[in-house]
Amino acid sequence: MRRLWLIFAQAVTVSLAILFVVSVLRPDWVSLGGRGAPATLATEPPAMAPAPARPVTLPSFAGAVARAAPAVVNVYTAKHVDVPLIPLPSDPVLRDLLGQLPGAARRHESTSLGSGVIVRAGYVLTNYHVVEAADAIEVALADGRETAAQVVGADPETDLAVLKLPAQFGETPVATLGSDGGLKVGDIVLAIGNPFGVGQTTTQGIVSALGRNRLGLNTYENFIQTDAAINPGNSGGALIDAAGNVVGINTAIYSQSGGSLGIGFAVPIDTARSVMDEIIRTGQVKRGWLGVEPQDLTPELARAFRLASNSGVIIAGVMRDGPAGRGGLRVGDIVRSIDGNEVQNTTSMLAMIALLPPGQEVIVTVLRNGRMVNLKVKIGVRPQRSR
């Protein structure tokens, strides 16, 4: 009897232990409710099903591209070049003489490509170097239409040109021109063009810097720098902001390989608009001119002249019978201000004079022999650079 009791006690103990373990680890196995009704020993509510994941909205500039891209065109040019068949001497006289001999050269057609922006009905804004010396120009729109175009005028000193589409070509999309005045470093921009002739392409980046100059690209430089990929063929295309407004005309890249290295330059749209309007109105751009050869006042020159700072421009040459010569400027004068506006360097001085209307009289303040002298100078018209 005692043996049976021990066996019963052990069986009950083992059963209770198993029940305890099961109720803790798998309470859904224990049924304390009605028949077929699952129940658990736990008092916590059953776990809720996970909520569906919220859709993630990724940033997109598709709207901006759709607004601007139809007005960006591909520009194809062709020009004829005489390729010499015999080595020509370095002497220019002999070179011209031998170059005129029959059979000395062969006529060769050279083609190039670029981009442009339709800025108003019938007019395309592009770079001067895209259409320079072209014998024929073709413009292809994003919708597939193509037509010949003619150069209305060009401004090599800002590397801009305006093309005219035929009147019978029909309606065309027109880009919305913004303003570069509100641009800040870090703003998102997109470049639209025809890189390497593969077709219309959009790249994205930010404004890397503003007011870039002294790059040796143009006479007047005030570039927007961007890391949006700009390659050969993008020249003349649109640089747009996140809303699709044109803020610049893509012009050049810094590259050692010919491809994009993330350093591209665009002419600000405010400058481009001013040049474009004058070209459409008069066929050319007239700028103020003094007729001097300016030179930056380096620290060494500042010490030689015993100056406290090196701001200002020293006159290294004066054109005979030019506006500056007639106004009394001399070689060695240090220009401090023009009409009260301080002159910092040659870049700022050239830009300041270029904006002055020809015929206007201004007061040029110079440092001469240790004392300030005010000279009244009548602004002239800057001669057109040969194309």
From TrEMBL:
CDD domains assigned: cpPDZ1_DegP-like
Keyword Nucleotidyltransferase assigned: no
Molecular functions (GO terms): serine-type endopeptidase activity
Superkingdom of this protein's organism: Bacteria
Residue intervals of the PDZ domain: 279-370
Gene Ontology BP, a term: proteolysis
Keyword terms: Hydrolase, Protease, Serine protease
InterPro entries linked: Chloro_Bact_Ser_Proteases, PDZ, PDZ_sf, Peptidase_S1_PA, Peptidase_S1C
Keyword Protease: yes
Protein family (similarity comment): Belongs to the peptidase S1C family.
The name this protein goes by in its record: 2-alkenal reductase
